[in-house]
Write a structure and sequence with these properties.
Elements: H1 7-15, H2 27-37, E1 41-44, E2 52-57, E3 63-69, E4 90-91, E5 94-96, H3 104-120, E6 126-132, H4 143-153, E7 159-162, E8 174-176, E9 178-179, E10 181-190, E11 194-195, H5 205-218, E12 232-239, E13 247-248, E14 251-260, H6 266-281, E15 287-296, E16 299-300, H7 305-318, E17 323-325, H8 333-336, E18 342-344, E19 358-360, H9 361-381
Parallel strand pairs: 3-6, 3-7, 7-18, 8-17
Antiparallel strand pairs: 1-2, 2-6, 4-5, 5-19, 9-16, 10-14, 10-15, 11-13, 12-14
Helix pairs in contact: 1-3, 3-9, 5-6, 7-9
Length: 383
């Protein structure tokens, strides 16, 4: 019999792989070895330069999946860290390192939880993991592609837990059951450069762009949706690159993002952008160009037996009654929802992506306990 997996040691081992998107740095190899030792059949699914992994133990349903990502964001100013971001050091009972919160510790906690459950006997169903190396990047060759491939093959996943750091201030205070969608728009107004004293010889793109952005922001997208906050449009950058005080520039560029609830579809918002750009270009001696990218649609996992299992496991283990929330940004749950109902639960996220990203070791151990209870309750209730 092999020794039980130590959750802290596994989290440290993963952090020591500097897997900044799109680099893998051996993180998938490490995880695959651990899972194969637990009897999982592992498939490496590489798309472009991204490493992905789908692992499954069991051939019958229900199939409970855990989804996560081994890639991390850059460290930023390395000199500002008090601990080496890729050393996985523990100081005063706290694990430091890029990925400690988002989300290598959660992966370690789920693997350790499965190890503990399997040591007590075979579950009445299957366990699987969908791990990507492209969640923090463009997310084009990660979970999106894996989900498409699994659906084409007819692979059945019944429910999924994503290990994102959803807790707000204390472990167990929040579970995500939905997310708003996201669409990005890049707007470029091409005019004609000229001297400010002779505007009739130029075509200034700035008033066109400013007027367009004003009309976009003036629209009230909605006042909310059941379980969701209102959609919001934000202008994230305006660039002209004009150092001269007496020069009308030739080009003005802006980027806009909308986080939208289920009152909208991404394609409808893209069509609205296109209509407004066409109107903005009327009568202008230039061009208004638009590019849009729908990062994901809004979704909601209806409350029922699956969300009840997760909430009960959190409540029994942490003593907290979690808020079933749809707030925050996007995650790979937006792709997994095409396969099955999905919820997200993980560590407190206050230091994710920050300098000195860190998680208390006790919290990581508590997360393992919650995951262990989720797995046990799931097969008791859902099988």
């Amino acid at each position: 019999m092999t020794a039980p997996i130590d959750v802290l040691a596994l989290a440290q081992d993963l952090i020591r792989r500097p897997s900044v998107t799109p680099a893998d740095a051996g993180a998938m190899d490490l995880l695959q070895r651990r899972l194969e030792a637990l009897g999982f059949a592992c498939r490496r699914m590489r798309f472009g330069e991204i490493e992905n992994l789908y692992a499954r133990r069991g051939i019958v349903g229900p199939n409970l999946c855990f989804a996560g990502h081994t890639d991390v964001v850059p460290v930023g100013d390395g000199a500002a860290w008090t601990q080496d971001p890729f050393a996985g050091q523990v100081k005063d009972g706290v694990l430091f390192g890029r990925g400690a919160v988002d989300m290598k510790s959660a992966i370690a906690a789920w693997v350790t939880a499965m190890d503990a459950v399997l040591a007590r006997g075979e579950p009445a169903g299957s366990l699987s993991l969908l791990i990507t190396g492209d969640e923090e990047g463009l997310a084009l060759d990660g979970t999106r592609k894996v989900v498409e491939a699994l659906m084409a093959e007819g692979e059945v996943i019944d429910h999924c837990v994503v290990g994102e750091p959803t807790s707000a201030t204390a472990l167990g205070d929040m579970v995500k059951i939905g997310r708003r969608g996201s669409i990005n728009a890049w707007i470029t107004v091409e005019g004609k450069q000229g001297h400010v004293a002779y505007p009739h010889r130029a075509a200034n793109p700035i008033p066109v762009l400013v007027g367009l952005l004003g009309r976009l922001q003036d629209r009230v997208l909605d006042v909310g949706y059941p379980e969701f906050q209102p959609s919001n449009l934000e202008v994230t950058t305006i660039d002209v690159a004009n150092p001269g005080t007496n020069v009308i520039p030739a080009r003005a560029v802006a980027r806009v993002n909308i986080r939208f609830n289920p009152a909208h579809r991404g394609e409808d918002l893209a069509a609205w952008f296109a209509e407004e750009c066409t109107l903005a270009g009327q009568g202008f001696d230039g061009e208004v160009e638009l590019k849009t990218l729908i990062s994901g649609e809004a979704f909601l996992t209806q409350q029922g037996p699956f969300t009840d299992v997760v909430a009960q496991a959190v409540r029994e283990t942490t003593g907290r009654d979690p808020d079933l929330s749809t707030t925050g940004g996007t995650s790979d749950a937006r792709f997994i929802r095409s396969l099955c109902p999905v919820v997200e639960f993980g560590l407190v996220g206050t230091t994710m992506h920050a300098v000195d990203e860190r998680a208390p070791v006790a919290e990581i151990i508590a997360l393992q306990a919650v995951y262990e209870r989720i797995i046990s309750l799931y097969f008791e209730r859902m099988a």
